[in-house]
Task: structure prediction
Amino acid sequence: MKRLLMIAYHFPPHSGSSGIQRTLNLARALPAFGWQPEILTANRQAYESARPIGAGDLPDGLIVHRALALDAKRHLAIMGHYPGFLARPDRWRSWWLPATMLGLRLIASGRFDALWSTFPIATAHRIGASLARLSGLPWVADLRDPMAHDGYPRDPAQWKAYEKVERRVFERASAIVTVTPGCAEYYRRRYPQAAAHIHLIRNGADPWPEDSPPAAPGAHFVLLHSGLIYPWERDPSALFDALALLRVRRPDLASRLRLVLRAPGASDWLVALARSRSIETLVEILPPLDSTAARREMRQASALLVLQAENCALQIPAKLYEYARTALPIISLSSPGSDTWSETLKLGGACTALDDPEAISTLLTRLIEDPASFARQADTSAGTSERGEALARLLDSLAPGLGISSSKPAAREG
Result:
């Protein structure tokens, strides 16, 4: 059994981000293809939002190592302010040194054959680059999102910090993995010298064995968005404007509709946004759920919502693949021609522009009046196992040899 050290900030007990699922799913699948992972992540206090780790949350046999990380916003601020350099390339910059030192001690044991790190926490790639340089092990850099691209990050100093890490990735990584075709093509153009080392391993979701049947139609038509909403990348302002239009023009339909925002973050901003449009009765903002309950809620909604702005045209929310496992209508408010737009259509969903209240209002009217016209089939295409096999084959090409073991000890943390 070959061994892989996986460096990931988003990992249980962190909550509020679907980013933990990529690392968990790959870690769960890899042993079947000859790779035993161990996780190098942050200490629990680093997470702004956390929940207890329950039975079944971690794959059997998974060893988890935690290194000290301080959140500049919460741990290093004085009267709510902290120097900007403490949050570049991200607020967990302090994680780099403790994690690198712990990683070197682990590697010195001689039990690792490769490294893997995942963005969008850029410090994870700094750790991966340092460990690869100091150990000589092959390193796979996983880009769940693009790093420094046009208009992002908006702060020039932050952009430079991201760009520095990005250049290090494309100079030193043995392989770079992206999750969308658009991102892969973007980086092949940007770094042609590394084009042969760029690979695509999409996000995905497995069937949900614990699912109950979809709920019977109730008094309200529930449009559910499950997950974070960002003011810049997933701004729901036009959606709220559309709800306000619907309330005036079709009060009969508006009275039936409930927009449920589950674990969106920025709750105060969203509440103020709804009040400014006088649509408080149409919008519910609810706290996080564990993954089982969140999936059950998805199954029991009337339709499922994706938000993705034009500045994220090369990204696809991981939540879309969980939505796709249901047979419910999927509504994507995104940018025409973006990866999210294309993938939603491929999965049988409907799309309209995120910033067009009139078009959104029209779409919602059709959706509530005739949901059957938005019918689609549950997606049963490749899931965790196929993604794990793709990563294992890539790792095999970087660290050939050794055999396969099927032993699965109990999950523990080291």
